[in-house]
Design goal:
Elements (H helix, E strand, L loop, with lengths): L1 H8 L8 H18 L2 H9 L5 H26 L6 H29 L10 H13 L3 H8 L3 H31 L4 H30 L2 H24 L3 H30 L4 H30 L1 H19 L7 H7 L13
Helix pairs in contact: 1-2, 1-5, 3-4, 4-9, 4-11, 6-14, 8-11, 8-12, 8-13, 9-11, 10-11, 10-13, 11-12, 12-13
Length: 354
C-alpha cells in the first residue's frame, strides 16, 4: 500500500491534481496503521523474554528516525519560493527518493523476511502458538475478552490519551510556537527534529532496555508520564514568558518523554492483554491513540479560539496529570512474564512490581 501511495504521488505534482495527493496520502495513512503494530509483533515473535522490550524499542526507534527524516527532508529538498516550476521540481525529487526507499523495502521484505523462527523464542510464544492451533485465533472472542480486562482498558486510556496528545502536538505545535515567536519559525523544525530523535531514538532504547532488565512497567510508566506532565508545564511557562531559551530546552525534553511512550505503550498493552494476539492489542492501542489525537485537536482548536492558548495549555496539563495518576490504578499482574517464568521459574528475568 505504501508503494502504491508513493507511486501515485509522482503523478500528483501539478497544482490541478491536488485530489491525487489526497488519494495517495490516504492510502499511505491506512498502510501506516498496520505498520505501527509491526515492531511489537516482530519482537514478540522472534525474541526471548529477556530481550523482547529492547527488540521492540529498536523497531520503534527506526520508525521514529523515519518520522524525523520525514520532517527534515521536505524542508531541504522543496524550496520555499514563488516559482511554481522550481517547487514542482523539488517535490518530484522528493517523491522519487520516497519511491526508491519504499520499493527497496518492499522487495527486501517480500524476498528476505520470514514470518516466524523455526522454534518459539519464549514460553509465552509457545503457549500462544499451541492455543492458536486449537482455536485459530477467534478475534471476536479475543476482542470481547480485551474489553473485560480492567488493566488493559486503563493502559488504553492512559497511554492512548498521552501519546495521542503527542501526535496532536505534531499538528498544532506550529500554531502555538508562532503565536509566541512569530519571527523564529525557522527554529521550530530543528527543535521538533531534536525532540523526535531524543525521545524516539535515545529515550525509546533507554526505556526498552530498562523494561527488559527490571520489568517494572508500572513504575517506569508513572515516572515517564509524570515527567511528561512536568516538562509540558515548564514548556507552557516558557511560551507564556516568551523565553526562547526555555523553548529550546523544554521542546526536546518534552519530546524525550513523549517520544519514549511508544515502546512502553505497546509492551505494557501486550503484558496486560496476553494471551490475546499482539496485533489485536496493539491495533486497539493505535486506534485509541488516533481517536484521542483527533478529539484533542478539535477540542484544543475550540479552546484556543474561545479562551486563548493559555487555557488550552492548562487543559493539556490536567490531561497529562490525570494520565499519570491513572497508571497507579493498574495492577502489577504481568501476564506475559508469568507465562515466560513457567519455562524457567528459578531463572532471574528481573523483578516485577510485585
Amino acid at each position: 500500500m505504501t508503494v502504491v501511495g508513493t507511486l501515485i504521488k509522482l503523478f500528483a505534482v501539478q497544482k490541478d491534481r491536488f485530489y491525487l495527493n489526497i488519494i495517495s496520502q490516504s492510502i499511505c495513512g491506512i498502510a501506516q496503521v498496520f505498520m505501527l503494530s509491526i515492531p511489537s509483533k516482530v519482537a514478540n515473535t522472534w525474541f526471548g523474554a529477556g530481550e523482547v522490550s529492547t527488540a521492540c524499542a529498536i523497531g520503534v526507534t527506526w520508525t521514529q528516525i523515519g518520522l524525523a527524516l520525514g520532517a527534515l527532508l521536505p524542508t531541504l529538498m522543496v524550496p520555499n519560493v514563488k516559482d511554481d516550476a522550481e517547487v514542482a521540481a523539488g517535490f518530484t525529487s522528493l517523491f522519487i527518493l520516497d519511491n526508491i526507499a519504499s520499493i527497496t523495502m518492499f522487495v527486501v521484505v517480500l524476498f528476505c523476511f520470514r514470518s516466524s523462527p523455526d522454534s518459539p523464542p519464549s514460553q509465552s510464544q509457545e503457549l500462544k502458538i499451541n492455543n492458536n492451533r486449537e482455536i485459530e485465533i477467534e478475534y471476536k472472542g479475543s476482542f470481547a475478552k480485551l474489553l473485560q480486562e480492567r488493566d488493559f482498558i486503563l493502559v488504553l486510556i492512559c497511554f492512548g490519551a498521552s501519546y495521542g496528545n503527542w501526535n496532536s502536538m505534531g499538528i498544532m505545535i506550529n500554531e502555538i510556537y508562532l503565536s509566541f515567536f512569530p519571527e523564529n519559525g525557522k527554529y521550530l523544525g530543528i527543535l521538533v527534529l531534536v525532540g523526535i530523535l531524543s525521545g524516539g531514538v535515545f529515550g525509546t532504547l533507554l526505556f526498552g532496555y530498562i523494561l527488559d532488565k527490571t520489568h517494572q512497567y508500572k513504575k517506569v510508566s508513572f515516572c515517564v508520564l509524570a515527567l511528561n506532565c512536568i516538562f509540558w508545564i515548564c514548556l507552557s511557562i516558557s511560551f507564556q514568558l516568551q523565553s526562547e531559551i526555555g523553548s529550546f530546552i523544554f521542546i526536546p525534553a518534552f519530546g524525550f518523554t513523549s517520544g519514549s511512550l511508544m515502546v512502553i505503550t505497546y509492551e505494557f498493552a501486550i503484558e496486560t492483554s496476553y494471551p490475546n494476539p499482539e496485533e489485536l492489542s496493539t491495533g486497539l492501542m493505535n486506534a485509541a491513540i488516533y481517536l484521542f489525537a483527533i478529539f484533542n485537536v478539535i477540542i484544543l482548536e475550540m479552546v484556543f479560539k474561545m479562551a486563548g492558548i493559555l487555557a488550552g495549555q492548562i487543559l493539556m496539563a490536567i490531561d497529562y496529570s490525570a494520565c499519570a495518576a491513572l497508571v497507579l490504578l493498574i495492577s502489577s499482574d504481568l501476564k506475559r512474564r508469568k507465562a515466560n517464568l513457567l519455562e524457567h521459574p528459578l531463572k532471574n528475568y528481573g523483578s516485577s512490581d510485585e
